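Convert to structure. Protein one:
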Amino acid sequence: MIALKVILNPSLHPPNRCFPHRRNPRPNKRNHCFVTVSCNTKDSEPSSSSPEGDERKRELLAKMAMIEAQKVRLTNFLDERSAYLTQFAEEANVEFDAIAEETLKGLDEASAR
């Protein structure tokens, strides 16, 4: 019997080195996944199953686990990047509002003269 076990441990994730300039990092909503594949054989299994077939199944399961781990890493990267871009847009909007206020004050002062 082949078992696939998922281990969730956010403490094993490396620190955020991609965006050290972020002031307000948002907590990541997704758990980090580390996948392990284990294979258990039982004596009660029928002898008709070939070892090559079992090896192929193990290889396919290992590839699936690697793809799933890559998918999790990519999803986490995209979440971090999205949060960074959202924060950047919010800061840009605040700066644009400040510039607009200063411009309106300048126009009001110029028209009052």
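Protein two, convert as well:
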Amino acid sequence: MQATMNRPAPVELCHKNMRFLITHNPTDSTLSSFVEDLKRYGVTLLVRVCDITYDKTTLEKDGITVFDWPFDDGAAPPNKLVDDWLSLLKKKFQEDPGSCVAVHCVAGLGRAPVLVALALIESGMKYEDAIQLIRQKRRGAINSKQLTYLEKYRSKHRLRFKDSHTPKNKCCTM
């Protein structure tokens, strides 16, 4: 019980048609409460970016798909992982706008928030605003090395979604 008391609570971040849940990694002994948290937020997709510390079978039985994309603690994600992450999100949020995607690292303060920041930046948010939004909810998130990476990151606008309520060809002729 002591180990879970020192962990930050899961944090939900919403922007446009995207919802994210940033959380820490559970262990086999805390897995049932972790699954309950995910279900409470309606998570059906989880990205694990740290070493495996629990059996994902329990989550899969509850309808939660788990992707294992680990990268080094305190580091920026590899380009291939960024591409896979953004492709996964684009597909998920196009098919199910407003759904919640969970992402976790060990403490939920470095790797997971970096991936969420990348998604926010790719959706059109400024780097500074993405960091501020994440840190408002997850104090102490993102280290200086990761901040430098995000500052230098250039968006390719891969998560800009068309609003289905507006005409497809918005144009003003003068």
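Confidence is low (pLDDT under 50) at residues 1-5, 164-174. The domain at 11-152 is CATH 3.90.190.10 (Protein-Tyrosine Phosphatase; Chain A).
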